[in-house]
Specification:
Blueprint (H helix, E strand, L loop, with lengths): L4 E6 L2 E6 L10 H16 L5 E6 L10 H5 L6 H20 L4 E5 L2 E3 L1 H8 L2 E5 L3 E3 L13 H6 L4 H10 L3 E2 H7 L4 E3 L4 H13 L3 H13 L5 H16 L2 H11 L17
Parallel strand pairs: 2-3, 3-4, 4-6, 5-7, 6-9
Antiparallel strand pairs: 1-2, 7-8
């Protein structure tokens, strides 16, 4: 039975819970193994159409366990790198999932916990939650893609300040920066995230996966490259049963039925 990740299902929404509440859901070796596996299982299950990632109790994730990180000083650089790749594989698993992944953040997300939150496709955040790039305070440097994620919505100067000071910013400020999709009262993040996931679960699965690919690529591609990818995926979409159903439903003035057409999840 899973211990690092608790799993439950609500309709078409799979809820994955980082389960280390005694340490504010600090990252464990078990999380490195179990979360990517849980995401892969959710992606392969046609009954799952959206995913919510959250933390047990009242905190999302406090990042790496410093007791464990302290032991890496005695390791060879290659061993340290091997340990780090567990985190990076976890981040890739979130980013590469073809189904929408929504973070429900209570309490806060610090260090690699912030990386995990920002790796998700959307964020639902409690107003009182805090976020911090804490590494500098313990003599470390950021990892988990956090500098890449932050650079998508903050200026170079703000990125420098956040990383060089490690100061906390509030959920409200992160929302003002454009990184938070829904800002809610304390204790309401999970329910709001599930509601958002339920809405996404009614959308055409393969079209949604293609849209995820386009949005993820948009920040690094130039205009011509992005339009080329748009053209490729539009050609695919036009030949898909989802488009036939969507267009047909629009012309017939009825609600489209996409769920029966989901089949095998699209992966680009």
């Amino acid at each position: 039975m899973s211990t690092a990740v608790l799993i439950r299902q609500e309709g078409a929404v799979r809820i994955l819970i980082n389960n280390n509440p005694a340490k504010r859901n600090a990252i464990t070796a078990g999380l490195y193994a179990e979360l990517p596996a849980a995401l892969a299982e959710a992606q392969a299950d046609a009954g799952v159409r959206a995913i919510v990632l959250t933390g047990a109790g009242d905190f999302f994730c406090s990042g790496g366990d410093l007791n464990q990180l302290a032991k890496r000083r005695a390791m060879a650089p290659a061993q340290r790198r091997e340990g780090l790749e567990g985190l990076h594989d976890l981040i890739r698993a979130i980013r590469n999932c073809s189904k929408p992944v929504i973070a429900a953040v209570e309490g806060g997300a610090a260090g690699a916990g912030l990386s995990i939150a920002l790796a998700c496709d959307m964020l639902v955040v409690a107003k009182n939650a805090f976020f911090s790039v804490t590494y500098v305070k313990v003599g470390l440097t950021p990892d988990g893609g956090v500098t890449a994620f932050l650079s998508e919505f903050v200026s170079r100067q703000m990125l420098m300040e956040m990383c060089l000071t490690g100061d906390r910013i509030t959920g409200e400020r992160l929302h003002a920066m454009g990184a938070v999709n829904r800002l809610v009262e304390r204790g309401a993040a999970l329910n709001e995230a599930i509601a958002l996931a339920e809405r996404l679960a009614t959308a055409p699965a393969r079209a949604s996966a293609r849209i995820k690919t386009l949005c993820a690529n948009a920040f690094s591609a130039d205009l011509d490259a992005q339009m080329e990818l748009e053209a490729q995926l539009m050609v695919e979409s036009q030949g898909d049963d989802e488009a036939a159903e969507g267009i047909g439903a629009f012309l017939e003035k009825r609600t489209p039925e996409f769920v029966a057409l989901s089949g095998t999840p699209y992966a680009h």
